[in-house]
Amino acid sequence: MKKIFFTSFLFFCGVYCYAQKHWGYEGEESPQHWGEMPGNEKCKDKGSQSPVNIVVSKVKNKASLPGIKFHYNTADVKDIDDNGHSLQFDFKGGSFVEYNNKNYELVQFHAHEESEHTIDGVRYPLELHFVHKAIDSSVLVIGVMVKEGGYNSYFEKLNVFKEISKNSKEETDIKFDPEKMYPRNKAYYTYSGSLTTPPCSDHVTWILFKNPITMTEDEIENIAKYLPKSNNRPVQPLNGREVLGK
Q: Which spans in the chain are helix H?
């Protein structure tokens, strides 16, 4: 099982990290040019891309949508990576979520400033993406909006990131259960989209919690120091896709 997942993860990293040296958020490397780069042709497919603006009045709320079962008991952050595109926290294998009768293993989470998704056109100061991957290579991303407010004591378990040099990686061994940082109310929006960075692979299941979490202004600024200014892809058209809510 572990060997299969490791091979799958290498494939995922190979695709997800493709062209890392060739894309960015400004000038000729900006999102409007991603689709012109070899391997990133999906970025030009406006029919299935992420992020999107969620218009709350148009969301179809369905009580029948599945709940999310979290199995993060063994979650360990193995390294923290300032990769030039975001501040990324990579996990060891073994932790997963169960959604719609499928298991998705927790791979990593990273940050975007300001948020990539918008709610009725409103951007939050930060958006955290918790990336999960199934054995069949399908991807589920849990998005968490962050607003300025109270001190987030649980996130401070990862405060070693403040000691990382720019564009470097630090190995760690930190027990970290993401559910303890998620909002208590797990109501969510969901839609079918894509990765928000090259190669913009589609068929990604997005779960966006309706309720934000809080961090202080200082906590948000500490994270932002490790991010390119405005490392958020512009909102993409829905083109007939439905956003459902639970």
A: 2-16, 31-34, 217-224
pLDDT tens track, the chain, 246 positions: 433 333 333 334 444 443 344 799 999 999 999 999 999 999 998 889 999 999 999 999 999 999 999 999 888 999 999 888 899 999 999 999 999 999 999 999 999 999 999 999 999 999 999 999 999 999 999 999 999 999 999 998 998 888 887 778 889 999 999 999 999 999 999 999 999 999 999 999 999 999 999 999 999 999 998 888 889 999 999 999 999 999
| Rounded distance between C-alpha atoms, residue 183 and residue 44, angstroms | 34
Residues marked as catalytic: 85
What is the separation of C-alpha 245 from the centre of its chain, rounded to a whole number of angstroms?
Answer: 19
CA dihedral sign of residues 30, 33, 39, 44: positive
Quick one: how far is CA 69 from the chain centroid? 18
3-state DSSP helix/strand/coil percent for the chain, to nearest 5? 20, 35, 45
The conformation of residue 48, written as its DSSP 8-state character, comes to S
